Sequence to fold (323 residues):
Amino acid sequence: MSRILIFAEQRDGQIHPATSQLIAAAKTLDPSAERHLVVIGDDLDQTKATLAAHDVTRVLTMESPDLKRYHPRGYAQALTTAIEQVEPKLTLLPATFMGRDLAPRVAVRAKAALATDCTALRYEGEALIVERPAYMGKVIATVALATDRSSIVSIRPNTFAPDQPTGANAAIEPLDVTLELGSLQNTACESTSSGEKDLADADIVVSGGRSLKSEENFKILYELAHVLDAAVGASRAACDAGYQPHSQQVGLTGKTVTPRLYMAFGIDGAIQHLAGMRGSKCIVAINTKKEAPIFGVAQYGCVADLFVMAPLLTEEFKQVLAR
Ligand SMILES: Cc1cc2nc3c(=O)[nH]c(=O)nc-3n(C[C@H](O)[C@H](O)[C@H](O)COP(=O)(O)OP(=O)(O)OC[C@H]3O[C@@H](n4cnc5c(N)ncnc54)[C@H](O)[C@@H]3O)c2cc1C
Fold:
């Protein structure tokens, strides 16, 4: 039976949402394949148990105080060992910052074929075919990976809907790895938080464009977002103008989001913006120009001034949701 190995990214024991999306991708690609997870870090008791509740064959673990934070060499050694042990046909990683760093390191060590930042994958006979956006999403490259070796594929987060845990109790097994970390040491790690909901985790995203005209004006979107428990996103034009930090940018060169509801206020709908949000389940567009391309992908459109609509919606939702 063919085997798929899935790298379960975690930080401080928090499993990255992309992990369950990778499990879903593996199931979609080959439902009959064995699914093996590998998680690397330190002090992972709770994390392992959470992962084992998914419909997977087993969870391999590598725990060491040296791997408490991401360590390029240590993680590469552990993941390569997992590949040698499981001998998967395919290894999946998320195309996150960690996955982007790790995937090529492991591909070299494992002498595997590598395709990064993929948005679709399928088998055609023995050949694994993946799709990768190129030239800023203007073209989609279709790539066939070599069949004479194992493949490593990183998948863009939020491309697949997450797999839900089944309450299963998969086996948890430690990996036997002798770490050789060399002189590379992680000496400091600083994390910051704005206190606002993270775009990647949000079920609802309220997004604004250049037409907001200032950082100050974005407050009307934050007010709506707080009522809806939503995250605030922005177009690149709004971020380039300094109205929002680039960490909030949605699109090809920003974040990909697939929330239940995406509300676009004064966003024109350029192809590069659509690349980051068109997978949303329901898109609502508010724009003064009825020809704006955003209306082409929206389920609900409102030709109106956002400075009128946003406060109105905030008041209406406050009443409906009693917040
Ligand atoms: C290589 C490359 C990568 C890119 N990556 C990204 C990316 O990741 N994300 C991204 O967003 N863009 C990206 N862009 C930029 C993209 O092409 C567009 O320029 C950008 O998305 C436009 O942003 P916007 O819709 O906010 O602004 P505009 O194009 O200026 O559109 C403003 C819209 O607001 C409407 N409007 C004006 N006033 C009001 C009002 N009062 N009420 C309601 N509606 C109003 C207008 O009718 C218009 O539709 C990229 C471009 C390139 C070349």
User: Anything to note?
Assistant: Residues 136, 209-211, 235-238, 249-254, 266-268, 270, 272-273, 276, 286-289, 292, 305-307 surround flavin-adenine dinucleotide (CB under 6 Å). The longest helix spans residues 306-321. Residues 14 and 39 are 11 Å apart (CA to CA). The first strand starts at residue 3 and ends at 7.
